[in-house]
Amino acid sequence: MKRIIISSLFALLLFKATAQNNPDRKQPLPPPPFENRAPGDMRGHRMMRGDRKQNMERIELLKVQFITEKLGLTKAEAEQFWPINETYKQAVQEIIKTKAEDEIVFQEAMLNARKKYKTDLKPVLKSEERVNNALRLEREFLRKIHFEMNRRRGF
Fold first, then answer.
1. How far apart are CA 6 and CA 4, in angstroms?
2. Whole-prediction pTM value?
3. Beta-carbon contacts of residue 155 (< 8 Å; ≥ 6 apart)
4. Which long-range contacts link 145-150 to residues 24+ away (Cβ below 8 Å)?
5. Which of 20, 32, 78, 130 could form an S-S bond across to 125 if both were Cys, CB 3.0 to 4.6 Å?
6. Each residue of 117-131: pLDDT tens digit?
7. Given CA atoms 148, 150, 152, 155 in this order, what sign does their dihedral have?
8. Dihedral sign (CA 94, 96, 99, 104)
9. For the chain, what percentages of helix, strand and coil (3-state, to nearest 5) are there?
10. Residue 63 CA to its chain's centroid (Å)
11. Domain boundary assignment for the chain
């Protein structure tokens, strides 16, 4: 009887020891990006379709706050800066829609839009350094958003 009890305890301990988490074992892969999923498959996706517009508005507000803070815009400068920025954003969207087929034409149009944006910003920001910083900040903001999204997805 003792042998049976001792053998069963040994087997139980052996089973328990092998059932422990192994840090070397590969973790399961994160769910695929939203674009590659089957319709209706929302596993692991925090942003539901209905919230997309609301989330885009929230990101836009964060962008306004980020750029305003980094550029140190006064209220008067901000009132002049944001309409120019909105015009530039609409021009870029229009270029993307119309000139996306021909890469050279697309890049030329984007460069011309950035040059026009720079000349429009010069009277508002008053220094070449601030204008160049404004051109850089949008990319920096997009990089931070991209990093944060990847961090939240577990990449």
1. 6
2. 0.61
3. 30
4. 145/59, 145/62
5. 130
6. 999 999 999 899 999
7. negative
8. positive
9. 75, 0, 25
10. 11
11. 73-153
